[in-house]
Amino acid sequence: MTAETTSALLLSIRVAVLATLLNGLVGVPLAYILARRRFRGRGLVDLVTTLPLVLPPTVTGYYLIVLLGRRGWLGASLYHATGWSIAFTWYAAVVAATIMALPLLVRTAKAAFESVDRDLERAAYTLGRSEWRTALEVTLPLARNGILAGIVLAFARALGEFGATLMLAGNIPGKTATAPLAIYTAVQTGEDAVALLLVGMLTALSCLVIFAANRLGARAT
Amino acid sequence: MSDRLEVALSLRVPGFDLDVAWSAGGGVAVLFGPSGAGKTLTLQCLAGLITPNAGRIVVDGRVLFDSASGVNVPAQARRVGYVFQGYALFPHLTVAQNVGFGLRDLPPARRAQKTAAVLEQLGLGDLDRRYPRELSGGQRQRVALGRALAIDPALLLLDEPLSALDAPLRRALRDELRAVLSTVGTAAVLVTHDFTEAYRLGDRIVVYDAGRVVQSAPRSELLWQPASESVARIMGIRNVLRGTVVKASPDRIQIRWRGHLLEAVNSPSRSYLPAADSPIAFFIRPEYVRLIRKDRGEADPAHHMNLMDGVVVGEEDFGTTWSLRIRLTAPGVPAQGDHDLEVEVPHLVYEILEIERDRRWQFSIHRGSIHVLPA
Predict the structure, then answer these.
(1) pTM tops 0.80
(2) Which of B76, B86, B148 has the CB atom closest to A129's CB atom?
(3) Are B102 and A128 an interchain contact pair (Cβ–Cβ within 8 Å)?
(4) Long-range contacts of B218-222 (CB under 8 A, 24+ apart)
(5) Is the ipTM, as predicted for this complex, more than 0.85?
(6) What is chain A's mean pLDDT, rounded?
């Protein structure tokens, strides 16, 4: 295994793990709010979170450049203040993977929260629990399997991210070239052995993910 | 007796208006009526799970909600025990954890002690480590009741507490529930659409229909004096009939019905004096219609009031009684589809009189058994 394939694999795993963590931190509360609260703009939030699932990944990547690029809406002021831009760094790969994986987690977790009987929450309120304590003690434990299944899906999606990552992070070997990008490069340059090795490893990892998701699904029923 | 519970609610939700006011003097108040009448919504308002648009809720002098003075005690602070339809037991917690759920503020030792006492009281002592899915329907009902009682509620709410059970168990648990409620002595509000259940469990029955209270009365008064024809129909009373007034006095009413002149007692507590020729509704309980025995000679009109002839056109076996559909020997369309009267006779009578073979009978109804319904 060459240094470049190793670094591509390690980078992919690091990006996927970080993106999954961010998904958990942002996506689970977001899913709870979408499932349980009625507020103005709820439909819009739902739409924006779901969009990356439907849009071509390059389109999502384009929006991310518009937002975070050196001359982007947020990126410009960041560059102005610090002289640093997220574009073409491995952080950009994390951002791209997070945004692309978020709809999978949010939709799965939202369905899991919605499947919790509201009378259980009402019972907790009459027994003195605040909404916050009820969410922690009743809703979250009962939605747990659905949330874990969503996290597995999000991890798989983050691991395989290609289009949006290419747009925002580029394909810099040893820096932003994740495994899927490295496979593309290897095929383009005729390095069949490298491509085959990476393909094999990603296939094995994906099988593991499916196995884990099935086990969680079986336990949920 | 002063009222322990005062309820006045006005709530508008899409497609439904709830506008009710009633009070109860302690014991068990039953909210009775068809599905979708607003009974569960009332419970949710009492528990503070829904905020009504306007109204006032007072329990034992403590104001829980008053739109006029802006009082709205949150559900968490109301100390209202709620037994949900389907029980809503926490599936991830054991029986003991479910019952102790509302006791979080107590020190652990006190909490365990209180939980054990409640489990003991409801005969659940040896089930404390089980999970809800491992319990029978009756045990779940007791756990739900125990969880609500553990917080020493000021008011207990029960939403169809027996509907999830099968018939024999339901009867046993109905009587058990009645015993527990009277032992605890907490003011309780129970929702049901089963009149037998309402009558067995309630001290007062509040009849709901389409978001309104159509009658609120002590249970015995409701049984014999429904306030109107619609209340009688909601209660599932059989033989609710319509005739024409011939003559009304404070103690008697004469009614023309299906070619017969019926004489009925006018209720002394609410005498009702409709004009002659006005329409009138009345009901006759099927078990109060007398069949005249043929082996005892001719029926005597002086002795047998409201005498009528008819034919049995259909019958249903209810296990211990037979319900006979009678069509009167009179011209015109029968009052209730293919028949005029439903008559209930015990199995023994059915066999002795050989009703299966002999279909033609005379009937008599005592004037006290014809109940006039105010318009």
Answers:
(1) yes
(2) B76
(3) yes
(4) B219/B30
(5) no
(6) 92
